[in-house]
Amino acid sequence: MATAYGLELDPGMHEEFDFTNWTERESVTVGPFTVTPFAVNHPVEEAYALRVEVTEPDKQGNAVSRILTYSGDTDSCTGLEEAAKDADLFLCEAAFEEGRDDDIKDVHLTGKRAGEAAESAGARRLLLTHIPVWTSPTTVMAEARPVFGGDVAVAVAGVHYTV
User: CA geometry: angle at 37 spanning 152 and 46, to 5°?
Assistant: First the structure.
């Protein structure tokens, strides 16, 4: 992180952040949240989808669990589907388009592949994100809809989403 921001390695950003390494499928607790990393398919040493779970009382006082899964950068893989299993909200990148990016493997999802992962995982809602300016949000959403039976939307800056 220090190198990315042009800072000296000592102290780097250790005064601002508590850096730790993820261990695949080893959960950590952050406040009321349990965060579990799942290794995903991306051409770097370590890439993870994150499953964030919280249990809180509903209006009647019953314990209710909520799950948010964030894909991170990935292509289709088992770890992604396992991270998104039964997610209330699956925040999933869809940087590529079907037909246009077919020759680029193991980097990003298309809307169709994001929708397939969400469907396979049994996610309730799919929120597409990490869509670059050269990729059409309308196209990736249209790719996801036929393969995912739940609600599909494209993340919009400044909008709040309830899990």
Answer: 105
Q: Which CATH class is domain 28-154?
A: alpha beta
Confidence of residue 43 (pLDDT cuts 50, 70, 90): very high
Neighbouring C-alpha atoms within 13 Å toward the C-beta of 39: 8
How far is Cα 148 from Cα 118, in angstroms, rounded to an integer?
7
Q: Where are the strands (E) in 40-139, listed by range?
A: 48-57, 63-70, 89-93, 125-129
Cα 146 to Cα 76: distance, rounded to the nearest angstrom: 17
39 vs 35: CA distance, rounded Å: 13
In the chain, the percentage of residues whose pLDDT exceeds 70 is 100
Q: Is 80 helix (H, G, I), strand (E, B) or coil?
A: helix
Domain range summary for the chain, segments of one domain joined by +: 28-154
Asked whether the CA dihedral 31, 54, 24, 44 is positive or negative, the reply is negative
Estimate the crossing angle of helix 137-144 against helix 111-121, to 10 degrees.
40
Kindly state the average pLDDT of the residues 5-34: 91
Q: How many other C-beta atoms lie within 10 A of the C-beta of residue 148?
A: 24
